[in-house]
Amino acid sequence: MRARLADIAQQAEVSEATVSRVLNGRPGVSAETRQAVLTALDVLGYERPARLRKRSAGLVGLVVPELDNPIFPAFAQTIESALAQSGYTPVLCTQTPGGVTEDEYVEMLLDRQVSGIVFVSGLHADTSADHDRYRKLIARPLPIVLVNGYVEGIEAPFVSCDDRMAGELAVAHLVALGHRRIGLITGPDRFSPVQRKVGGYRSAMRRLAGLTDTELDELTALTLFGVEGGEAAAARLLDRGATGLVCGSDLMALGAIRAARQRGLSVPGEVSVVGYDDSPLIAFTDPPLTTLRQPVASMAVAAVRALVDEINGHAAPHSEYVFRPELVVRGSTAIAPGPATPPPPSAAPSAVPA
Fold first, then answer.
1. How confident is the model at residue 299 (pLDDT cuts 50, 70, 90)?
2. Whole-prediction pTM value?
């Protein structure tokens, strides 16, 4: 026990006597110090005494897509952490192709009497899906929050990254580097975030690069999300003379880089590539990827706060909370090859260095 007290005291940067007072429930310890000792217990893997364990305020469902794309585990981890800090026990439900559907997960969560559900990039993002499923949940009533995918007419909080701005920032960055033939690679247009990204890309290309709608149609490739979809779409756009590629996800961007290299083109010497998400480890690819960073932590905290407010009867505004993406410039973008017209001063966006 003495060794354990010493370990906990060292981790919490307090005395052993203070640790003993916290573990035995004695007075004379500030709330901050008490929390530091409890956190040290958790970090070192010691089980808290029964009287010090936080009782769960209830279960909350977290429904996310398959975890192949690293951005979804990032969302899951941050949302789960925020739920735990609010006293709720998260129940993670991950979808896989051909596996349990979103509706089946919802039925399982309802059977477990969850206090609420957070949906990340679910069927609410699919404009072809029947969104009455969410209205029925709200009518039960069951608090829900929907992340990345806005639907008009659903009385619930929405949390989104500004996909339209992401498209505009990516184009502005490449135009500032002298690129004019800039292609867009993203997913199927039935998804509302894709529609917004396409809108931002086309608006910026008309304004900053002076391209017509016909030219933009030729430079837009909608495909399947993932590395393979990005590679196939990039091959088509490179054949059409694109020197810059804006991608709807980091994985698609990695596919685009693969397509360029298969044609003997260097990245970024001959082709510049911009991703989207800034998912974990993407800074360590070859080359490190320039991308638009989703503010995952801020979005997760907002989603959980809105849900907890709903659960506690303090209705959160039933509107969309939109978060600005950050342009993170790394090694996959560079000055356009060959002669290029200097971009207008307004073309250069503010960027975050890697």
1. very high
2. 0.80
